[in-house]
Fold each of these.
Amino acid sequence: MAAESLAELRDWLFLLLLCLTLLAEMLELAVAAVAMEEGEEDFLCPLVCRCDEGFVYCNDRRLSMIPPLPLTATVLYLQSNRLANSGLPPSLERSSSIRVVYLYANQLDEFPIHLPPSLRELHLQDNNIRTLPRTVLARLPLLERLHLDDNSISTVSIQERAFSGTPRLRLLFLSRNHLSSIPAGLPVSLEELRLDDNRINTIPTHAFRGLASLRRLVLDGNLLANTRIADDTFSRLANLTELSLVRNALQAPPINLPSTHLLRLHLQDNGLIHMPRGTLDGMRRLQRLDLSGNNLTTLPRGLLRDTDGLELLLLWGNPWYCGCNLLWLHAWLYGRGAAVTVRGLTCHGPEVVRGQALRDLSGLMDQCEGPPGGVNTVSSTTTTSPPSQGSMFTLRAMRPGLVMPPGGGEAGGQASHNALELTVKPLSADSVQVTWLCPQPAPSFRLSWLRLGSSAALGSITETLVPGERQQYLLTQLTPRSHYLVCLLPLRSTSSHSGGSQRGQQQEKDTTDQTPVCAQIETGEALRPEGGNGGDDSDTEMAVLPLAEIIGGATALVSLILIFGIFCWYSQRAGYVSGETDSYGVRGQRGVGMGKPYDDYVESGTKKDTSILEIRSPGLAMTPMMTHQPLQPKGGEDVTYVHTIFPSSHGNGTYRSNQSHNGIITQLGHTAGYGTNRGYREQGMIPDIDYTYT
């Protein structure tokens, strides 16, 4: 009796405890509801999230709806979920404490609407957002950083004056979208703009108008070319500290680059073939210059004259020609010492210095005559040194309308003007020796040459400066069997100037006031190799390509024939095998069981066979039967034998019979496929052609 009372008391206590627990939960929910309505208390952290003071971590939870959040939340981590536009509750707009929201890697296809107006930083990258409406951005007046990378935003999908409601926006990332031009109406407060990996191919003059505060501009991986960039595009960005134009289609750096505050300039992987002398003028604060992955062979003397603060120079992946044209750079490297780090300055030519660093060519550079940056080439030590070859660079944009005067003299190559006598003489198929005699001394000469047949205004005139004490020059790497116009102009200045730009202006003035002396010359034919077939190297190289095409075509044709033959053989084989299988699926097995090739004539009854087909579980087997030898049943099994078929001379009738031979029941039936009957007479199993059975 006492035990029953204790059990009943225990049950009542458990029930009371359960009621108290439910009551506490209800009170907690009521308090939370009051806190949500009145804003007097903090809401609890969602069960699916993790909270740490003002940080709420709801990322990677596969959420399709944002749960109720604490009122003290300042940073929301909602990335890598399944949130769509409908998953953002309207109550999120009433929050006044949220500063940063991470919503990247979700399923948003429109710019979110229900966002708190107190937002400072918004991450929306890696979604499928297509438009930027002005009304939605206007609800975020305090926004400073906006990340829209890896979306589907195009230039036309950005509404006009879309950023007019975000006057504090300092950072805008639009990388890897579908932009074809610079977005219009960018906020003047912008300090960093990333537009890399888009389809931008044109930058007009007004593209960056008003962006005086811009510090960092990234335009990597677009379709920019020199002809599609306005001349004063970047000159408006006076406060720019970093400019990146990696992976575009530039052949030379854009002109009028900002120089006052620029610290980092990235021009790698463009295919640059020319660096104008004044590209880096005024960049005294430049710390990093990257020219890797281009087609530069030389750098003009004076390119780095203003880069006193340069700390890192990257030159990987260029076919540098380490002749005396880089003597000035060799001297500059030793003059700067450890103050600058240069990487990738490895010689690609001449052959004697291939693979060596320019810094290690002190012995060869000592053979160069004249001041640094002179016009000699490195050559092996000989008793008679050839005429010097200088640094060649193509001037395309400095004087695009320059027309060289017609050369005097004959094709032999002599001309004179104002006591200046010019002589040109071909030495080989691709080299010409230029000598001159000038009674009046000059500080330097400007030597220019142009291959005839192309316009000087549209093509390129190659020219170089030669010291005044020299009287000869060697032109190399010319086109064989071509006509060239070679001109020489003495440069005389009446006064000296200390500034580099003033010196350039003075020389330009003297050039326009004087007329150069020109002469025409024709290069010879290319040398034929000894013991050859009479064709030159170019013909041999061109003949290799058709031979390779013939071999490749023959190989492909043979491969196709083999494949076609194998296919035909396989198709014929498959058809043969399928044809051997009759309606019972045993036709192909009969030949195997018989141990000899299958003969269709046996099936049709035109040939005698002394074998029978024994059908038993689980498969089929062929059992030979000797003449006059009765068959015995095996263990009382119900065995069915299909006897061989013999032809009949008049087997058109139909007959059915059940005969019993020595206890074995032979089931005979009509076979209409071939119009023949088969039968056996008496006990000896002798073929009977008079009476037929099926």
Amino acid sequence: MHTVLILLSSLATCWSVPRCSPEEAAMGRCRTPAENRPQCMEMVLGYCQDVPYSHTMFPNIVGHRSRQDLEMGAEYLLLSVIHGLLNGECSPDIRLLGCSVLAPRCRDNKLMKPCRSSCEMVKKSCIHAFEAIQMAWPYFLDCDRFFVGEEEGCYDPLSELREKQEVAFANISDSGFFTIIQFTYHTNSQMFSILKKTASKCSDISQTYSIGRSVEGKDLLAIEFSSNPGQHDLLEPEIKLIGNMHGNEVLGRQLLIYLAQYLCSEYLLGNERIQTIINTTRIHILPSMNPDGYEIAASEVADRNDPENINQEGHEYNGWTSGRANAQNLDLNRNFPDLTSIFYNRRRFRHFRSHHIPVPESYWLNKVVAPETYAVMKWIRSYPFVISASLHGGELVISYPFDFSRHPQEERMFSPTPDEQIFRQLARTYADAHATMSNNDTERCGASFANKGGITNGAQWYSFAGGMSDFNYLHSNCYEITVELGCDKFPSEEELYPEWLRNKEALLSFMEFVHRGIRGIVKDEHGNGIKGATISVRGMRHDITTAVDGDYWRLLNPGVHIVTAAASGYSKVSKRIHLPRNVQVGRVDFVLKKVPREPSLDYFNIPELDNYDRFDPFNQFEQSSPRVRGEDGEERTEKPWWWAYFSQLGVSAPTWLLRNY
């Protein structure tokens, strides 16, 4: 940061306004006396020395009349610091592209314009990096305004750079098939950039979206992989992977960043297994649920790595507390509604259901709800997730619900769900595919899981209320496990690649597990899908419900099952099915007939259980505070962190770099 500031100060003390407007320059209306007609001149600009030509001309395309004008301008100053601002991303592509406009190629005393296709390619690949630091795309890189088509005799300013990159890539792998992943830690800004760059690279199968914001306003950015990103495909199951719920447990965050890059690259390289996963599954990845806590933990580790710090404790001992909570000092894995207690208290009712239990109003009244928790709850309610994994650190084991003991006085008591066998299979799928987790000889971190093959019931390990996994199971169709990745919550960078190798197969196997059991569509007599129909299995007191189009997914082990579909206002239909061991997923459809509506027995003597759709009844999160707006009526945002570098020069700053200004 200091280097960037010094560089800016040394380059200029003021910015001059071009004597020829950009519009005039672009249209060829800049007039000069005959004796001073523009001629080609040698390229002497320090930040444009590596362009694929040796001569330029002034006035340039945006109207700077001389080299001195350019060097005193905001545009050239931006090129001089862009590498530092974007953490090296899209470098030198952006700089070379900018030089092609600010110091354009000159041949035979004629100015040549760069190709529009080159600009569009760079913008598509790099605009995410600008968005990550809340910077607008520079006006002088407007592809339509300052670049031309090939039919107008343009040139490619990136041609030599591409040739060098192709040679370098060819030397990496003899076969030409490779996936490049940088196994280092990433700041929040770098994480956002990588996810957006990955989505841009694989735009046909991927997109990024935000599920909300943290206490300090950081995006909770997710990336999705699907053959039809942005939409739910009929009968295609959806899964989610969440990392960094505790800000100081960082390995899961990094693994999910690597996984996103791996899925994108391997899909493009023709990896059949990856293509099958993505073409048949909708995958949602949230690498960091707690970006605020991560920053605290990362700064703590940085301090302890300082050689002048005499109290160094190393990575392994860092952050058993530092950065665990969010910026409100709330433990996010204790902040969800305690639906498990409701399940235990009311399971004696014959018709009581253990699925889609509503959030009680007391939760909103008596608890401080973190914005990160609220965002994930809405996320869970918005997508028909089937399975989920939350990646943690501190042990080496897979934990599955229930996490809250069925006896409040028992801290370690086996507390199974009605889907105990399904959860065990789901947990074992990850543990067995992990390089060491299920090995009884593997050194553990204090708890004893040697005789359990690396899996445990959560409450039997230790009991706590308000956990995310229990909430998933009791409030939605989603089966979530907790993946404890190892003893060291913040391992050294040298361990990141070995940990990726230990967990890669486990992550892929976990995603493939979703294609087990049965799936189908519940329709009415006219062929219309029925939303919210229940799918129940005899002997299992936990139902799932159909999605918007009437499709459903029910995890089941092989065997004979009696499956029933029911919906309010329709007759019930039951089917006896046989799920062979050699069939991963079976198709079971239902057609329900309309009948007179009868009152449901499910809610007799059980108050407040018919309000599932009432979420955030006091509207405490949806309310928005007044925003400052500019003269054009658009919302003005607070100045971003990089603005200080420009404003400290004490002159008119480049407001064209501000978004929504």
Amino acid sequence: MALLRSLRTQRTTYLINSRTSVSVSSSSSVAAAAKRHSLHTTAALEADVQASSQSPSQEQHVQAAGILRRRQQHHQLLSRLIYSAGAAGVGGSRQHTRYVHSGQNGRQSHQLAQSSDVEGEALREKRQLGKSASPKPSGTPQRDPLDVGFNDPVAAFKSKTTWELVRAYMVYMICSSEKLVEHNMTLMKWSKQILGQRLFTVLMKATFYGHFVAGEDQIKIIPTLERLRSFGVKPILDYSVEEDISQEEAEKREVESSVSSAGDNKEEGTMPQYHVDKSFADRRYKVSSARTYFYLNEATCERNMETFIKCLEAVSGATFGTGITAIKLTALGRPQLLLQLSEVIMRTRKYMEDMVGGQGNVLTHHKTIKDLEKYYATLGDNKNVQDFLKNVTSDKEGILHLFPWSGIVDEDSQLSDTFRVPDPQTGQMRRLISQIPPKEEEMFRNMIRRLNTIVKTAAELDVRIMIDAEQTYFQPAISRITLEMMRKYNKDKAIVFNTYQCYLRETFREVCTDLEQAKRQNFYFGAKLVRGAYMEQERARAQALGYPDPVNPTYEATTDMYHKTLSECLRRIKLMKDCGDDARKIGIMVASHNEDTVRFAIEQMNQIGISPEDKVICFGQLLGMCDYITFPLGQAGYSAYKYIPYGPVEEVLPYLSRRAQENKGVLKKIKKEKRLLLTEISRRLVRGQLFYKPKGNYVPI
């Protein structure tokens, strides 16, 4: 144990000499990444020492001494790496002396040798360095005219080498074969067994992995991010390691984590869609375009939080204030809590509808506290009613929420005590949520703490957070929590974005409601519009459990919903712009691989006078898909993003399998992309440009 204390002391006192430079290079990113790597390696070494403390004393001493030697070697290597990275910068830098240590729960913190005031200054300096470190292409940034037909192969693929074009064509050819795609996961596993790990890794990097994934870690993805940036495209980063578990294991985990330890009490008024059903417990059922997390324990959620924070750090170091990280709320907590919270929200809406008529969210009724007092008038001077009304959230335009959501997110409010309403007939308080045991109340607080930690880190690093949409039985809770995070963090600009799935019948109404809340509570509203990932699963579940189908009846109806919702957002942006308000209080990402939808958005922007420079509309597609849309947009000066997955080859196989399945379902788009690829490959062959090296002079907006 003395050796363990010695190691911990060394962890907090080793010296790093780092250089900062006004001009840019990737050296600052390398140094920062090296420091982060050091912290994780240090934590791992300490874990080894703690594990060795379980051994007999002599063996413990030998193991700990070996770990100490490895740590010293690690620190020497790290110092050389950081010094080299700093030395690679341009002269005129000034030297800082910094001590580094890792805090509790693996979080990183920095302690400067001067005084406590220097810590805040160092963080500001780091942010400023990130902003000023943007690579400045020589001369005026290039802007190309946009072909809104998206038929220009040169614009689509000028960021690619000829080998990358050949690889893309080969991948799309494979994706066109239904039999190969259907059994792709089995084929990949067989290939690994036959070829061995090393040859299998080489094969994957030369095919699917190389096409759809940016790299194995935060360091190896930097060249991809820098090349994207030089061609006007920004990243949405995601660590795409997924568990490859069986259906039986998935069902077991989901059922166990979706039911309270107090039991699944289906009392009067409960809604069946917000209770787990084993037939649909494997949430991967008929879902190819979305990642699924299955709850194991609280420690796994903590690790997921740390992974999201690493993504934030990676995207911050490589994108200079323009990057985004995508997260899922089901990765951060027990799904049972999201189910219960979603049911509370929908039962609250029904309670309000039964009392005042109409339908929809509470704030859409535009009722005041005085209106509610009239509905409770027959109860007289009832203390329960008076206490309830004191906690209603309202403004001059009416009631926003029946419950103090800010207290739920910001404070330690107990869910079981909060979600109670007076019976209009008797005045007795009745629960809208079943009694939650203290341990599960703590789990909810942990989930909110993790999300707060992630969003606060994003704000400090100047990175935006997009909270993904999930199944409809989780979504009311996810949206409610996300809007409260917007209220809390989107005070000066949009840091947090919610995701809206336009295949749902209620999407337009939900977006309008959330836009009204943002306006009335004066925060920046961020939205990512997608078609959706769970349509077949949602339809099957609704039919099996006997509740209304939440999905639009046809593909065309979904397209209409997307365009209608987008048009409403653009209309409100135009009104704000005309009134002299900050138009950036509404920010929209058009996340679509449908070129008709992208074209519609561009036409609407032109018609109502919204330019790319207004920075209120951006576009996003997946890495390796629809390059003929993303790159021409970025090179024409529009805000364009690629969703960038990364992770070790073996651990992203489930992600690659989903990409193959998704491409099988969009054969029309593949057909066009294959045609454009073949045209560009032929053009380079004729012009003797087979060894073309991409070099962009674009700056993302």
Amino acid sequence: MTRGGNGGDSWMGSGGRTETGLALRHLLRRGFPGGRNGSVPQSLVIVTDGKSQGQVALLAKQLKEKGIIVFAVGIRFPRWAELRTLASEPQEQHVLLAEQVEDATNGLLSTLTSSALCSPAAPDCRAQAHPCAHRTLETIRELAGTAPCWRGAPRADAVLATRCPFYSWKRVLLSHPATCYRTTCPGACDSHPCQNGGTCIPEGLDRYHCLCPLAFGGEANCAAPKLSLECRIDVLFLLDRSSSTALEGFLRAKAFVKRFVQAVLSEDSRARVGVAGYSRELVVAVPVGEYQDMPDLVRSLDGIAFSGGPTFTGSALRQVAERGFGSAARPGQARPQRVVVLLTESPSQDEVAGPASRVRAHDLLLLALGSEAVRAELEEITGSPRHVMVYAEPQDLFSKVPELQEKLCVRPRSGCQAQSVDLIFLLDASASVGPENFAQMQSFVRSCALQFDVNPDVTQVGLVVYGGWAQTAFGLDAHLTRAAVLRAMSQAPYLGGVGSAGMALLHIYDKVMTVQRGARPGVLKVVVMVTGGRGAEDAAAPAQKLRSSGISVLVVGVGPVLRDALRRLAGPQHALIHVAAYSDLQYHQDALIEWICREAKRPVNLCMPSPCMHEGICVLRRGSYLCKCRDGWEGPHCENRVLRGDAPKARGSRQDPAGGLHTPGSQHLQWPGHPGS
């Protein structure tokens, strides 16, 4: 039986009314087309909306009396009473709903394998009942109100005025509790024979093969040595479950997380994992650290459902920054490195750059896995091509497990983190740059600052902007943490006006890179200047003055054409990075960090720039330095004025406890971390 047009059924028909009775009469008269004359059991599957134009009860009864097993499969909103009339007993096993495809096919299989019609495919297959609902669409009449009407009275010459009811008709969907059946059979993969995240592929009832991750060499059952995640880290996987990614893409991402967890985590692992999904809103399905037992964590992933909806990656990132890691701090321990791993194959339908910067501002590392189609967006989100893993074919996603493991445990920040640096960013905020491009500069230097361990003992960061004048946005000693530095960078003012790079460099020399403003003697000093190139004509001499004082200067020139003034400003060729457009700054972050790391290997002169104030003279002495102060000044850096009438200092010289010469008007200092300290 096949469904006819307009909701009708006909024998091999393609339209017309629902004449189920005619079809049944045809079968009674001529038998099954191509049948084997009753030598084998016969079953009839009627697919119908159960709204036949004629009588079917007697005909169905005659078919069943001939020993034919009748299944009635309803479509859309069938007339269930008619389906039950058509179907064989027991009706709950022979009346099925076609829209519930899995239940209909399983119900058919369950009934066939449990009856005398055929033997089950495997002796251990079982038919299991579960509650479901039968739905029907019915038209009902409802009282809508009353209206004046006229009716005839008993007398022929009289009429009667009264109020008559009027009705409206509407269609309602009704559900009736029912029992459905499905058949489950044991398989070769039920025992989960594939180890270390391998995928079991059944081959018949009792054979299988394992699809292993590349890291496990394809050995039998993937029994190669496990990868390990030795670093102390909190990881939140962020899965795209929007309509654009589709159910298949979401299930693939979830399977990747399972494989990663099984392959990388062990009982003694110091890593903790959580999982969140997003479409319109972020849902933290498995909070970071909730499951310490790996099998429990894997089982919890099964409860994460596909949702559909729009792809709001930017909104999800913003919510991750606010509540993605909850209160996952480890008692009595410093906060571990926190990483967000984004898995998506669809472009975002909202803006991502701002929210991604906000995530990084919360000291979170962003990594991303996705298809080649979203590579550019993922690079914008993570801030670096090195933090992005892409694949050409969907099945290639699973080969990224070892690469992700490596990126998680090899901190992506610079290899010169342990080196002390006083770092000043100088941004061109003139009218020739414009506010939009200035905002891209801000984003770039924020991303660069993320690569350094900001604290008073390692890296200090300051920011200067210039346009019609030079302004210190914040000095070296103003902010003691990375988060504070990032917030302050976002608040840097755009000035406008005609810029003078030379004036700005002299401002740094005189008022920023000095001991009284937080600069540390004996520490590498770097100025990174980001400019569009205009207003740099007067900057070559001030830049050389900084370099002669031991301050390294790197010029990042932006624009399609590299101006000659920038070439002169940069001095040595290696101190210049040319970027074609402001939007491309993000792709040159690694080159900038590598340059700073190379500079960090140079020997540092404790007296360059001079730490001595008020024209004091710096003298090197056995790995330390001595400030010889002019008359009227004293202190370690000649910072204190000698008031008239003060008691005179002891005359002569003496050795201080550190072995340095101490005389009136001079101060001998040793700086921590240098010979002699």
